[in-house]
Description:
Layout: H1 19-22, H2 38-45, H3 54-77, H4 84-126, E1 140-141, H5 146-162, H6 171-192, E2 195-196
Parallel strand pairs: 1-2
Helix pairs in contact: 2-3, 3-4, 3-5, 4-5, 5-6
Amino acid sequence: MNAQPDHNTPEDRPSGTSDSESGVEIPEWAPIEPLPSSEMVLAAIAGMVPVTATDILDPAGEFVECQRQYRLALSVLSQTSASAEQMKEAAAELVSAKSDVDMLIMVIDESVADRLLQRRKDRLHMRPMAAPADSAPNVVVHTESVGMIAARMAELWERLVAKASDLDELPEAHQLCELCAAYDVFAAEIESGRRLPPGL
Length: 200
């Protein structure tokens, strides 16, 4: 039987930190971090380096540059004065930005799926006896994933930054506040087991 390490050892670290970052393997007894709050996602999008939940917040922080690239390329494509070469370059930038956003969404969603899978394993380990079928709670599957919502947050943030000089018309600020509130409810429901992201 293996002895469990002391809780105050240097090996202790947040479970969202990857093995390659610290060189230390996550102990099996370590609790799984909760999903990051909207405030933490926005901080990562704004360029702050996350200290926890890096499996989700690091890719979320990369969304802004992709969204900026996409917006600028779209702007060039909408100009009637753009040359054929500019249009071709802008189209390539647009496709590249969209591909990068899709890849970052996938990375975040895989991290969320890994967390939920580990949580299920932990629950089964703690309660190996299956509950009766009629007592199973109704779990709602959400139409958007955590990665999709983070991408929309980054898109609104990037549009806000681009329009920062025009403080009179910023509907994106209200949309971002509403989206953040909805995300926090969604994350809490995932944590409580009442809701699942799509595909799980």
